Amino acid sequence: MYLRVFLSLLLFSCHRGVTSGSGILRNQAAARSAGLSSNTTLTMTMPESSNDECDRVMNRSAADRCAFVKSTPDCTMADGFINYLYTVFCLLPPNLTPLTITLCIIWLLFLFVILGLTASKFFCPNLSAISSTLHLSHNVAGVTFLALGNGAPDIFSAMAAFSHPHTAGLAVGALFGAGIFVTTVVAGNVALVKPFTVASRPFLRDVIFYMTAVFWTFLMLYRGTVTLGETLGYMSLYVVYVLTVIISTYIYNRQKYSVNTSVQSVTHIPEEFHSSDSSDDDIPCLTGGTIQQDYDSEYRPLLPYLESTSHILLSSLNPVDHRKWRRKSWRWRALKVVKTPLEVLLLLCIPVVDPDKEDKNWRRPLNCLHLITAPLVCVLAFESGAYGEYMIQGQFPLWLLVLLLGLFLSAIVFCTTTNDCPPKYHPLFALLGFMVSAVLISAAASEVVSLLHMLGVVLSLSNTVLGLTLLAWGNSIGDCFSDITIARQGYPRMAISACFGGIIFNMLLGVGLGCLLQMVKTQSDVQFESEGFLTWVLAGSLGLSLVLSFVIVPLCHFHLGRTYGIFLLVFYAIFLVIALLTEFGKIHTVST
């Protein structure tokens, strides 16, 4: 499941950073900043990195902080629409800092809502449509397109964090923190809610691959530098994982077919046997639409009728299902009221193709409008607005050219199609929706990273502890609720499979793509800044939790009971206490 639900309040405060100009100048500033940070080789045995000079702003007096922020290159983040450090220390008075921090946390919650809503309602459905158009099997789609849809916020957050060496700790903390959270808190709650026997071979396969990924990441952090060859090899580990999933599923299906042919009298295999070793086939994102389609068919009129174009447009922009509204609780309704304005804006910008519907979710007036708004949003949001002011040959704005092309294409599509019949090229709208939602997720992830960096500076917290707490919780709490709900509905194996399968993809692709993009920008190897002993506490805790699960679960004959669930929750509580004590200096290494 990929629903990421957060209780949010809406706050928008916009101030462009002191860096301005065309996209070329902004990219050059980012490259200079990254290059400045990568000239010094860091040894990972250092107790704490000192390259992020912006951390020293809190040591200055309140009157000198604004001048320090303006004169320090590390305080100027090239990514993000808002320069949060400049806003806090230069635009707002010092006596309002507590209020500012509170408002920033509310804004952070809203950014998490944008990430989750865009991924669940637009990114993942379009990926499902693309996989259906390509006629991919469920297991291949599950470990590729569906994994990308479920892990989009984590992956884009990691890529945004790796864009600057001094925020790479956010990515490491978030990926490791989310790994511990999912494999202990989420898996523990699933075992508490619905004790069950886990599928043995898929469980061992996922744990082994995840332990390999964690160990490889640990080696990269220990060495402090990553080469291009190592990055490509690191990402190829996921290719090996995908091939292993495909081959193991093929072998299992052959064995199941042999059992069926040998026992001719058995005409129906129980569902529990079917899911005992093929948890990769349980892909709710790809199959859930069939149930909804059957449900909607009950309310379909017996006689067809023609809707007007204006009525189709207005109904398409209504995100509230009146039948669902009457069934849901008041908490769901309150959250829906908060999210509705954002959903309407996203519906205006992002097309969604649904292969499970008879009309493939073809909405002629809205889809024609998407040809105008979607490319325009991509230009304005890509690289945090870097190309919004770009001038072609210094005379013609890029956004105006995109707008004119969108108007031209929209007019052609509107004049050559009808309201009730989707065109043959309608699946291309899924590709367009995928691109727009990816750009918006990337922009929101960049804002999250910039905002967390500001909170770390103001609150004197390391990027790693912010990553393993706020960023990890924000990206994982939705999965926690959805997996527990799946377990309560009687599908604990599907929930536990989602716990381990998705985080492998997030770590390998999040770290791999982040390092690869940083290499392209700086034309050099990626170097990590040490966050001290806390990094090793985080890596060691994640490795220990996986090793214990790898040993304890087989000893329990792969039965996950309530005792095992309580053990996992206690493990996470102990880890969190140790991590916070390490952050505040209560636990530290003894220097020799």
UniProtKB/TrEMBL annotation:
<feature type="transmembrane region" description="Helical">
    <location>
        <begin position="203"/>
        <end position="222"/>
    </location>
</feature>
<keyword id="KW-0472">Membrane</keyword>
<keyword id="KW-0106">Calcium</keyword>
<protein>
    <submittedName>
        <fullName>Solute carrier family 8 member B1</fullName>
    </submittedName>
</protein>
<keyword id="KW-0050">Antiport</keyword>
<feature type="transmembrane region" description="Helical">
    <location>
        <begin position="234"/>
        <end position="252"/>
    </location>
</feature>
<keyword id="KW-0813">Transport</keyword>
<feature type="transmembrane region" description="Helical">
    <location>
        <begin position="99"/>
        <end position="119"/>
    </location>
</feature>
<feature type="transmembrane region" description="Helical">
    <location>
        <begin position="140"/>
        <end position="162"/>
    </location>
</feature>
<feature type="transmembrane region" description="Helical">
    <location>
        <begin position="563"/>
        <end position="582"/>
    </location>
</feature>
<feature type="transmembrane region" description="Helical">
    <location>
        <begin position="168"/>
        <end position="191"/>
    </location>
</feature>
<feature type="domain" description="Sodium/calcium exchanger membrane region">
    <location>
        <begin position="430"/>
        <end position="580"/>
    </location>
</feature>
<dbReference type="InterPro" id="IPR004837">
    <property type="entry name" value="NaCa_Exmemb"/>
</dbReference>
<feature type="transmembrane region" description="Helical">
    <location>
        <begin position="451"/>
        <end position="473"/>
    </location>
</feature>
<keyword id="KW-1133">Transmembrane helix</keyword>
<feature type="transmembrane region" description="Helical">
    <location>
        <begin position="428"/>
        <end position="445"/>
    </location>
</feature>
<dbReference type="GO" id="GO:0006874">
    <property type="term" value="P:intracellular calcium ion homeostasis"/>
</dbReference>
<keyword id="KW-0406">Ion transport</keyword>
<feature type="transmembrane region" description="Helical">
    <location>
        <begin position="494"/>
        <end position="513"/>
    </location>
</feature>
<keyword id="KW-0109">Calcium transport</keyword>
<dbReference type="InterPro" id="IPR044880">
    <property type="entry name" value="NCX_ion-bd_dom_sf"/>
</dbReference>
<feature type="transmembrane region" description="Helical">
    <location>
        <begin position="396"/>
        <end position="416"/>
    </location>
</feature>
<feature type="transmembrane region" description="Helical">
    <location>
        <begin position="533"/>
        <end position="556"/>
    </location>
</feature>
<dbReference type="Pfam" id="PF01699">
    <property type="entry name" value="Na_Ca_ex"/>
</dbReference>
<keyword id="KW-0812">Transmembrane</keyword>
<feature type="domain" description="Sodium/calcium exchanger membrane region">
    <location>
        <begin position="106"/>
        <end position="246"/>
    </location>
</feature>
<dbReference type="InterPro" id="IPR051359">
    <property type="entry name" value="CaCA_antiporter"/>
</dbReference>
<dbReference type="GO" id="GO:0099093">
    <property type="term" value="P:calcium export from the mitochondrion"/>
</dbReference>
<dbReference type="GO" id="GO:0016020">
    <property type="term" value="C:membrane"/>
</dbReference>
<feature type="signal peptide">
    <location>
        <begin position="1"/>
        <end position="21"/>
    </location>
</feature>
<keyword id="KW-0732">Signal</keyword>
<dbReference type="GO" id="GO:0005432">
    <property type="term" value="F:calcium:sodium antiporter activity"/>
</dbReference>
